[in-house]
Specification:
Layout: E1 3-16, H1 56-68, E2 72-73, E3 76-77, E4 80-83, E5 93-96, E6 103-111, E7 117-129, E8 133-137, E9 148-152, E10 159-165, H2 172-189, E11 201-213, E12 219-222, E13 226-231, H3 234-253, E14 261-266, E15 271-277, E16 287-288, E17 295-296, H4 299-308, H5 313-324, H6 328-335, H7 338-349, H8 354-372, H9 383-394, H10 400-411, H11 416-422, H12 432-445, H13 447-454, H14 462-474, H15 481-494
Parallel strand pairs: 13-14
Antiparallel strand pairs: 1-10, 1-11, 2-6, 3-17, 4-5, 4-16, 6-7, 7-10, 8-9, 11-12, 11-13, 14-15
Helix pairs in contact: 1-4, 2-3, 5-6, 6-8, 7-8, 7-9, 9-10, 10-11, 12-14, 14-15
Length: about 500
């Protein structure tokens, strides 16, 4: 009997919410680069007698994300204490949500491995506080051969939304697509910056492998589930799952058994290593936090949040294809981030053709952004200026080469008028009289070539093309090539 091993994957994504202060105290959430243990107070340090006060903004952002993921929002929910002893939690427990999450029962669609949309169910979205950060160091000489761990509580108490999927993901590639879609969504909503490298979006993967009969599909056995941590990029998520699936498949194929455990992804070595046995829910001894009143989500909040939701990226991508005729790849690129989508649409509204605007954004705009370190929000070329430049190219008033030179001056902070002048271009193109003068100049300077043409020694027209090229060079691409050729032929005939 031939066996087939099928991965079963569910993801837990922790999204750091974009609030100015922590979820239960007024300490700043801007901990990147701050001195350790400076953004702290008695509440987030868990000192005796301190009482938490819920940050309303965190709840509003959680509701916003839940609605965008098609979840049902509970109108009554509570916070629980999740008890475990570890140095990153000074209280000895984490304030989280257990059996009454803020949102549940949602869905999101991703591109499946077969190219068709694949539905991934969302189990729940709940709010919780983040833990502190442990920093491990080698021996510092104070105790010979000893190593030390330090803890920075600046991050402790930062608000998180944990988004838990059903185990509907069947490959590392789909897992990567799912994380990318969640990240794109929270960025569109303004819920989080979704920066995985800085820890604003962190992923834990739960993966198991089921052994099936390749002929009948009958499940022969289920492998034990493993949780993987420390994946700080989309590529790391994909690589970690690929490795873990191979590892679990090999164990089952050899007749072995798998332990239910938490494993650490080592990105440098490309392997997962065992950290600890996996806890069950009852190990945490959840109970409602007596210091935090229940949350009541009103109909007014739900209605105002629904009305404030932006057009979501998958809907925008579909509309860009239908309304503007963009190819699939261009539509996906323009809809990838909200600032890019808004810039593109403003270009089109200002008169640029959609295809030309998309091409310039993908090439010139992003090239300059990457070279100069601009963000889309701080990009110096206004959409209206790019639209006018693109329209000049479409209208034959500028060549693409000259337009790129103008664009470089625009990116340097000049106005379109000044950028055109710096590139030696005219905003209105060249008049017929200007072109006539340029043709006259070329004919005068190249009298020997003119004589060859008039004497019939240019049967294939190569000399005329040569003269036309000289005129176009002098015109810096602002003259119409067909018009230049017409004027040249007329002037050459006149001299015969």
């Amino acid at each position: 009997m031939t066996s087939r091993y099928i991965p079963v994957i569910g993801l837990e994504i922790h999204v750091q919410l974009s609030t100015a202060t922590k979820i239960f105290c007024p300490c700043s959430t801007d901990y990147i680069g701050a001195e350790p243990n400076t953004n702290v107070c008695p509440v987030c340090l868990g000192l005796p007698g301190s009482l938490p006060v819920l940050n309303k903004k965190a709840v509003e952002l959680g509701v916003r994300a839940g609605l965008a993921l098609s979840c049902t929002i509970r109108n009554h929910t509570v916070f629980h204490r999740k008890n475990y002893f570890y140095p990153d939690l000074p209280k000895g427990y984490q304030i989280s949500q257990y059996d009454l999450p803020l949102a549940e029962g949602g869905e999101i669609y991703i591109p499946g491995d077969d190219g068709r949309p694949r539905r991934i169910r969302i189990t729940r979205l709940h709010l919780e506080e983040d833990a502190g950060k442990l920093v491990h160091s080698a021996a510092d000489g104070r105790l010979e051969g000893a190593a030390f761990s330090f803890v920075d509580y600046n991050r402790g108490g930062v608000p998180l939304a944990e988004i838990v999927s059903e185990p509907d993901i069947t490959s590392p590639g789909e897992a990567r697509e799912y994380v990318a879609r969640i990240r794109q969504t929270v960025r569109y909503l303004g819920v989080s910056d979704g920066d995985m490298e800085r820890g604003s979006l962190r992923v834990d993967a739960n993966v198991s492998v089921k052994k099936t009969d390749a002929a009948t599909g009958e499940v022969l056995c289920w492998g034990e589930r493993t949780e993987i941590k420390n994946m700080n990029s989309l590529r790391a998520v994909e690589r970690a799952l690929e490795y873990e699936i191979r590892r679990q498949t090999a164990v089952l194929a050899e007749g072995g058994t798998l332990e239910r455990e938490t494993r650490h992804w080592n990105d440098g070595e490309g392997v997962t290593t065992s950290m600890r046995s996996k806890e069950a829910a009852n190990d945490y001894r959840y109970f409602p936090d007596p210091d935090i009143p229940p949350i009541v989500v009103t109909e007014e909040l739900l209605e105002s949040t629904r009305n404030s939701l932006p057009e979501l990226p998958w809907a925008k991508e579909r509309r860009f294809g239908e309304e503007y005729g963009l190819p699939e790849a261009d539509a996906a690129f323009m809809a990838e981030s909200l600032p890019v989508a808004l810039y593109f649409e403003e270009c089109v509204k200002s008169g640029a053709s959609p295809l030309r605007a998309a091409n310039w954004i993908r090439t010139e705009v992003f090239r300059v952004m990457n070279e100069k370190g601009f963000s889309m929000d701080s990009f110096p070329v206004k959409p209206s200026a790019l639209a006018e430049l693109v329209s000049m190219v479409d209208g034959g008033k500028l060549s693409t080469t000259v337009a790129r030179e103008v664009f470089a001056h625009l990116a340097g902070g000049r106005s379109l008028k000044d950028a055109l002048a710096a590139a030696g271009a005219s905003p209105g193109g060249l008049s017929a009289e200007d072109v006539e003068k340029m043709v006259e100049k070329v004919l005068t300077v190249n009298g020997d070539v003119v004589e060859e043409i008039r004497s019939g020694r240019d049967p294939k027209g190569k000399k005329i093309k040569f003269l036309a090229g000289l005129v176009m060079r002098d015109a810096r691409g602002q003259a119409d090539a067909a018009a230049v050729s017409g004027i040249l032929e007329r002037r050459l005939k006149e001299g015969r």
